Amino acid sequence: MARPSLPNRVMMWTLFAPHRSVIPLFLLLSTVSAHKDWTNSAYPDLRGPTFHQCASRMPDNKPLFICDPDRIFNATQLIRINNELAKVAIGTPCPCQRRSQCSSGYSLNGNTFHGFIVSIALVDNLQMNFHSPSEQQLIDRAESFCKALEGRWALGDCGNSVIVFVWRHYKKMVIWPARLAERYITQSERKAILARVNDLVQNDKWSEAISQVIAEMFEELRGDPESRVDTGTLSLVIAVGVASLLTSLITGCVCAFRCCGNLSPSEEKSLSALMDSSSNFLVGCAAGSLKAKIQIRPSRRTRPPLHSTCAIRALRTRPTSARGDPRRLPHRQLISVLWPSLTQPSFD
After folding, report:
1. Residue (of 222, 211, 187) closest to 116 by Cα position
2. Is there a contact between 189 and 225 (Cβ–Cβ < 8 Å)?
3. CB-based contacts of 344, cutoff 8 Å, min separation 6
4. Highest mean pLDDT among 25-29, 192-196, 313-317
5. Distance between CA atoms of 321 and 61, rounded to whole angstroms?
6. In the predicted structure, residue 186 carries a pLDDT above the cut 90
7. Contact at 8 Å (CB) between 123 and 166?
């Protein structure tokens, strides 16, 4: 009997043993479907019911800090990097105001408290609406994905979490710190760290790049936070200062208006005239003194300047006060005494 050809044998094996053909077909489809374009909501939750998709092998006696549904790392690399992330968690101080916010609920080498939670999210590709995205569009998409993961995973209770995102298809890496962690890893420090591992990223050495990023962030998270100016408090201080200045100006204007407005029109007119006559009196006295010095031999006897004697003559002819001393007249009576004599025309 002739032996059937290879295509016939494959067909006969498929027809008579269908249960055997389903298994390799399922493995092939599962391998192909594992590398899909992830969305923000479909990506596995590191602390949710879909955490088993993050790793093919779970670490022993340690929580999972890395999610690799596309199996970019092998099992050995994943366990090693997860141990490094656990070291960061127990090796950094608690930055929260209450120590209870740093209680992990699980034990890491006998320690139930943690500091900063650094997690890794790896994807082969993300779902996008652009066929040829620009560099800025890639950055915006990666940051929106990290922001969604920060809200879904919620690994830190006081903003003490950091997500390191790896996008293998476009060879991108993003360090996404939460609100409090950003004070320890500033934007300039993140750019410097990513610049130092850029060669490893471009050569697809993701395991070495991630290990170096974790080591450098570990040193930054154990240091002191960057001092910042509280913009809310600063705005409040500026607003109070401006309000106080305006209040002082308005109060001064009101007081000046009320004080100047209390004078009657006749008093304002008399005061203005007195100031003008005083200036004329000083000018006349200065002119008379200068004329007396220049005139050595006068041809005839000259009378003293009117303005130098008018006040004395007026005071001599004016009735005195009750005490008999004209110098003790009130200032309003003094004005009435001086005013007629100051306004008389002068003569040579």
Report:
1. 222
2. no
3. 306, 310
4. 192-196
5. 110
6. yes
7. yes
Q: What is the pLDDT of residue 340?
A: 58
For 141, phi then psi, to 5°, come to -65, -40
How confident is the model over 49-93, as pLDDT tens digits?
999 999 988 887 778 999 999 999 999 999 999 999 999 998 898
Is domain 32-221 annotated with CATH 3.40.50.2300? Answer: no
pLDDT for 214 beyond 60: yes
3-state secondary structure of 87: helix
In DSSP terms, 341 is beta-bridged to none
In this structure, which long-range contacts are made by residues 175-180, counting pairs with CB atoms below 8 Å and at least 24 apart in sequence?
175/213, 175/217, 176/143, 176/146, 176/147, 176/149, 176/150, 178/150, 180/95, 180/96, 180/156
Rounded Cα distance between 221 and 81, Å, is 18
pTM strictly above 0.70: no
Residue whose token pair is 């940051």: 143
Pairing of strands 125-126, 111-113: unpaired
First to last CA, the chain: 164
One-letter amino acid at 298 equals P
**In the chain, domain spans:** 32-221, 304-319+326-348
Confidence of residue 337 (pLDDT cuts 50, 70, 90): low
